[in-house]
Amino acid sequence: MWGGRTGALLRVWRLWPTGILGRRSISCNAASLAGSNCPQCWNCGGQRGPIRGDGFFCPQCRALQPPDPTRDHFSLMDCNRSFRVDTVKLQHRYQQLQRLVHPDFFSKRSQTEKDFSEKHSTLVNDAYKTLLAPLSRGLYLLKLHGVEIPEGTDYEMDRQFLMEIMDINEKLAEAQNEAAMKEIESTVRAKQEELTDNVSRAFEQDDFEKAKEILTKMRYFSNVEEKIKLKKIPL
Q: Which residue has the higher pLDDT, 220 or 46?
């Protein structure tokens, strides 16, 4: 029995200089030897692992911790890494997180926690906006799979599709009344709904090249939607 304990201690002593051994150091070293991280609280120095819940606060002193740089939007918003997202659940999660980390709740806390709160709140806002809209959600999911669509690329769009976009843009430029605007808006909305269904199936089949092609088309129609919004604004 003693041989096993002595051997374990000797293994620890080889890794830590004499005079700084303590309960926390041994525990943290043991965790690292087991292949797990051992993050420490910036405020009290206590170990934050194993992290329970969202891990925003130190379980010992309750100080707000810095954002985890390895956490993606889906994990932060408690969603499966999938194109299909429950937007009602997403909104509830957004509200829950803002009640936890919004800067208004840290006005009387330390400057460090105020800074962390700002960063957390920004990340939560970005994650919510990204996952809420089908186009930005699809582009983000594609990026997580190592595929990106550079801005301004036509991605070898077929001539027929580009002619369709040109035709819609011309009709939009010539539209002089509300009825014409609504007709164009309805056409674009129907196209986006169709493309959203198609890209969802592409992701389900792990066909990322197909998803890339469809998302590029969705981005074209998104640009048309922005032009429609601008034209609705009275000069």
A: 220
